[in-house]
Structure formats: structure tokens, C-alpha cells
Write a structure and sequence with these properties.
Length: 271
């Protein structure tokens, strides 16, 4: 991850107005706003987030802010520009670095900073990023946060207030097609359907368990086909037959493997 302070060259005192984070592998941008961000000093597109009290700008709008500061994709001489700057393809980050974020419309620019230079309130946000998620029935999530906290977040009421989530309310199966955002900044179903880590942390109810409890459960209570066959003293073909006839119920199945709850396998020995 690369971090840049967003500053104003015209300001008498150089202060960090916001921070741009860039994840190189996923090519994703996020912008973090200080707790005391001033909407009149913050870049225009970002000031709307300050007014709404939002401290993290999601990847969609962060990318829009970046795109406003670089050569657009429909530029007539784009190929020549890329060639002159030794860029093999259109790359937002590469183009942004050519001028360190400067553009003709304003006086903002980027300055590289280290994570240790970030304000304490932003470091605190990093400690509450999401580590993992488990979608549950009735539009709920089990969310594992970086600080070790586990929370159950009920989202149905939130979805009912936001029209963009209507598609999930019409088809609960789509809800389970959830993804963890790069860096643990939130969860998403697509670019427009996303929920920030801070919101989930705020609305979630604490669950008195730890992530290691869940890891231990998976380690000791989930078995694959080979382990199930060993427990029952049968062949893999027998396990496949029991599965196809509905006598065993896999919790996950792929082309290469199938997983079962160990408790269900053990119960077959009781019959």
C-alpha cells in the first residue's frame, strides 16, 4: 500500500487535507479524511463526504477524484502521451504520479508519507478494518474486525432505506455473493452497493467469541471427503453416493473437493 498526503500549494501553512491510499495489486484507491476536516479547504468532490460526516471515501468516488486529475481515456492523442511517458497501457496511478496529482483546475498535490506519519485517529480506523465476513440468513453479517472484535450486523432495515439495495431484498441469494473490499475498508456487492467498515462497526452487536474460536471450529469440526470416508470406514464412492441420495449434506462443494460438518458424519455411525 502506498500513502500520499493531499495538500494545497497555495496555502500559507502546509497541512494534510486528506490521505490517498493506493493498493498496488488490486489497483484500488481510497481516501481518508481527518476528523477535523474543513469542507471549505477539502477538495470539492471530497467536501461532500465531510459535510455528511463520512471519514472514508469509498473506492468508487476515490477513483473518480483521481480520474479528474489525469488524462482522460478519451483523449485524442492518448497513445502518444502514454508512449512519451513510458507507459505501456492506461494506468491511473502511473498517470497520477507524473505530476504528483497536480492539475490545472486547482492547487492540490500529493506528497508521499509513511503510515507512521498518519494522524492517530486514522491509525485507529486502521485497527477497525474488516478481516473477514460470514453472510447469515435474514440479511445479517458476522464481521471479524482487525482489533479482534466480532459483531453481528443486521442489514435488512438499512437495505429498506436505500433503493440501491432493492435487488438484494428481491433475491436473498444475491446477498450471499458478498465481497470484502480491498484493505478491509468495507463490504460490497458491486461498486454501487457497498457498506463501510465504520458503519458495520457502529451498528453491529458484539459477539463474545474470537476469530481463533472460529478457526478452531473449522480445523476440528469440518472434514473433507477423504476424512469422512475414514471416519465411516468406507470408500470415497460411498460418500459420494450418500451425498447424491441426500443422506449427507455438504456445507461446501467444488469440482475438486467437498466439505462436511464432522458432527453429521459421526451421526452416520450412530444409525
Amino acid at each position: 500500500m502506498k500513502i500520499f498526503a493531499i495538500r494545497d500549494e497555495s496555502a500559507a501553512e502546509q497541512t494534510d487535507l486528506a490521505y490517498l491510499l493506493y493498493y498496488e495489486v488490486e489497483k484500488r484507491f481510497y481516501i481518508e479524511l481527518p476528523d477535523n476536516a474543513d469542507p471549505w479547504e477539502t477538495p470539492l468532490l471530497l467536501s461532500s463526504f465531510v459535510k455528511k460526516g463520512e471519514k472514508t471515501v469509498n473506492s468508487y468516488w476515490s477513483k473518480i477524484w483521481v480520474q479528474q486529475r489525469i488524462v482522460p481515456t478519451d483523449r485524442q492523442n492518448l497513445g502518444q502521451i502514454l508512449k512519451e511517458n513510458n507507459l505501456k497501457e492506461y494506468d491511473e496511478f502511473g498517470l497520477l504520479m507524473l505530476s504528483m496529482g497536480r492539475c490545472a483546475q486547482d492547487d492540490y498535490y500529493l506528497a508521499p508519507v509513511d503510515e507512521t506519519q498518519l494522524p492517530e485517529q486514522i491509525k485507529e480506523r486502521f485497527s477497525k478494518r474488516i478481516e473477514d465476513i460470514i453472510p447469515l440468513e435474514n440479511y445479517s453479517l458476522l464481521v471479524f474486525f482487525r482489533d479482534g472484535t466480532i459483531k453481528k450486523c443486521e442489514l435488512k432495515e438499512h437495505f429498506e432505506k436505500k433503493a440501491v439495495f432493492n435487488i438484494l431484498l428481491r433475491n436473498e441469494n444475491l446477498f450471499f455473493n458478498i465481497h470484502l473490499q480491498t484493505g478491509g475498508h468495507g463490504v460490497e456487492w458491486d461498486d454501487n452497493m457497498c457498506i463501510t467498515d465504520s458503519m458495520l462497526y457502529g451498528i453491529g452487536k458484539d459477539i463474545p467469541l474470537s476469530a481463533s474460536d472460529f478457526r478452531n471450529f473449522v480445523m476440528h469440526r469440518v472434514v473433507n471427503v477423504a476424512e469422512a470416508a475414514e471416519i465411516l470406514g468406507c470408500t470415497r464412492q460411498n460418500i459420494d453416493y450418500l451425498t447424491k441420495t441426500g443422506k449427507l449434506h455438504p456445507i461446501k462443494s467444488t469440482e475438486k473437493n467437498t466439505l462436511y460438518l464432522k458432527s453429521e458424519i459421526l451421526k452416520r455411525n450412530w444409525q
